[in-house]
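Q: Hi! First time doing this. I have a protein sequence and I read that you can turn it into a structure. Is that right? Here it is:
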Amino acid sequence: MKLNKIPKIIVITGSIGTGKSTAVNIIKEMGFKVLDSDKIVHEGYNIGNTLYNKVVKHFGKEILNKDNTIDRQKLGQIVFNDKVKLIFLNNLVHNSVVEELIKGINECEDEVIFLDIPLILEVKEKNEFYDLKFDEIWLIYVNEQTQRERLWKRAIIENKNPDDVLKIISKQISIEEKVSMVDEVINNEGTVEELEQKIQELLKTKGIRW
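A: Yes, that's right. Below is the predicted 3D structure, encoded as structure tokens:
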């Protein structure tokens, strides 16, 4: 039986192009445990995992490649044109993520644990993480103009269509609106070193040791 108390739970979030991943890497390098929701989803689709089995059971073996891995493109085509199936798949994924996050939290013996959940504010409005309890949400922030400029440059470097990449912004809650929805805002319009300093200062303010 686990005797240690539940750690303080802090969600790190942002929008595409704000530098959330950089902030998460800084937090990891400081020695904090970070649970990555995107990684949980990715691993959940691996052969034999609970999410994999549930998805295959519901959508059938026609979504599988020859090596029995899930063909994400085929699955995407199925749910893209069927709202009911899309909702079902989203529920499977969200439930899987929440279960793994809660498991990770319960197994953590640290005083603080961070959860990397990029779209927590988008799904929070729909109450899809209702079983997940957390203490605070920290937002990695840049203004929208900086966000767009960074995404444009990244798209060029990655040989992607900048216009297609920028469309992602419209599918997320605006970064300015997110500011009023969180507990702390970390401005990331400067250098990586400045971002690290701001994270350290916030941790000190919260009385969190590292």
